[in-house]
Amino acid sequence: MTTSPTSEGSEPPLAVTEARAVAMHDDPRFRELRARLVRFVLPASVVFLAWYLLYVLLSAYADGLMSTKVVGNANVALFFGLLQFVTTFGIAILYSRYANRSLDPLADELRAELEGSGEEPAARRGEDA
Asked: Where are the bilayer-spanning segments (predicted)?
């Protein structure tokens, strides 16, 4: 598999062969990258799913609580529903920060090595992304 040039006159990176890609899966840095991803995604997914199921269960079985007026005609169910959106955006922001700090530098290093590019990853040059 080859990639197309990103701009006129630039050469595409070397082809990533299947053998090189499979070998990368055995690299301890690749395993560390996967472990870092799971350390964020699994707990975040479990917490969000539990929070969402709480909302659904309360909506189905706790009518009295969910219909309690908080401000004007806005009830607890409305605020819980809006908090679902807040939680979604919060997790997205936290993941973005986590990925920029913990995942992207290692992924860039592995990608550069896999594609055989002679360019040193930005993290090693001391540049901030």
From this structure: 40-62, 74-95
